[in-house]
Amino acid sequence: MAMGAPSVDADARRAPVVAVILAAGFGTRFDPMRPKQLVSVGGRPVIAWSIDAFEANPRITDILVVVNPQVRHAVERLVDERGYPKVRAVIDGGEQRFDSTVNALRMLDSAGIPDDARLLIHDAVRPFVGQSVITACVASLDGYAASTVAVASTDTVLVTEESEGSRLITSVPDRSLMYRAQTPQAFRFATLRKAYELASRDPGFTPTDDTRVVVDYLPHTDVAIVPGDDTNIKITTREDMPVAERIAARILVGSR
Q1: ∠ CA 239-137-187 to the nearest 5 degrees?
Q2: Total-model pTM
């Protein structure tokens, strides 16, 4: 796997800026017979939107796509057909999301990328990530070892517990402090690798995203917020498709 293609500044030439696109979930909540990564939105597969976004960004030097083995051949064919020069490899993911990240870290480690390489971990089913968001993620790693895209919560968040079959409220956090996480989530390679090394020793390790791994296992590491965008939606169920089609239509009209 060749890493470190030419980029726009000296820092990126010295250390690669790698987008890891996670597309290993099968999405049974969407359609058990149609992997949502390959469903068409605005005339192109969902995963193609995500790859296109990172392929177009001049700060990104390399792309690694992590897929469910059942769709690997289809994704490899798509990559070949669309001719993505930054895609270095398509690899199998794992059973859980964090297993897919671990597989990517192992692949990158075996490729010999340096500790100060910048990684952007992105969910393929967030197809409309903007160029300014990607660029801001890369730039955030000038001052921090980790960051995540997030948007301020407009809803009150309730902390609950289960009690005798009922769900009870235990606290109501200050809404002004609450954010909803999106992706990409950005890290220096050594930081994320160390966090996962520590997490692997914990038998109760069940994170749902990569930022959580750093927050839980490297608690003294500051994690910055990169402002997100409400169009950076995650396609989870078929009910998300009408919204996705409207966003795709606006983007396509704006690109003409």
Answers
A1: 100
A2: 0.90
